[in-house]
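With this grant's support, we have settled on a layout for protein records. One resulting record is reproduced below.
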Amino acid sequence: MKAKDKKFVIGGLIVAIIIAILAPFLASSDPDGLESAAEKILLVEETEPMFEAPLPDYLVPALGESPLGGAISIVIGTIIAFLAMVGLATTARWFKSNSNDS
């Protein structure tokens, strides 16, 4: 990867982490539009999930429902998503270089 591209990716990651840190402090405590509309129209109760999420509802269980816990869980999710995309890009680049060698 070129140095210019690395700077761009790192800059994007920094912006994403800043947004992740600020989001819980700026977010509304009211449910989102889709969730509240479904509750009003369908009168559907929440069901049990198929598996337990490691950080359910963007919360760190030890910190409770504090904005700090939300910020930490969103930053963790952002980093996991970034690493997943780096892994996917690396794998795609590997497959591309191997197919060109043939």
